[in-house]
Give the backbone structure.
Amino acid sequence: MKSSIPKQPEGAGNKTSKNMSQRLARYPIPHKSSLFGHSRIGFLVALIAFAIDQASKIFIMKLLQSYPGPIKITPFLNFITAWNRGISFSLFSSSGEANRWILIILTSGLCLIVGCLLYRATTRLQTIGYGCILGGAVGNLADRIQFGAVFDFVDVHLYNWHFYTFNGADKFITLGVLVILGDYVYTTYKQNHRQEP
């Protein structure tokens, strides 16, 4: 008894496989990450950044309570007590309970977005950068929830000119942004270098 299944033309299988390969090349499978995979480095960095930020704030806060007034560290660096009701580096500072809760909601949303970006990061430097940003943002969010404002204590100055007062969380956020920018520049350079004949 002859089979009723039509016979494929010779080379049809190879052609189908080739077409499938071309489609996969054009639409690559997105990077998959998980808490127990590539992104765990970033979440670990976030945890470390958060712990360092909170520990430094507790230590400096108690130190300034014992020794009121600016504590001179170097000719251009003091430790002071400053409660920031705005965002990083004392920007958009404003009093009021409504402003506090608006910033708590906005910061919580930012933490969620950064967490998603960390989860989907494709390089180790990206995970480290997003981890620094996430840890710093959560550190300042914890202050805002607990105290209604963020505790800043680093006062950098040059004679009578003073930079924005900041804390450890702000430094981690800045470091994270620099790491991500550095990763982008490095990745772009590598891609352009490979394309050169």
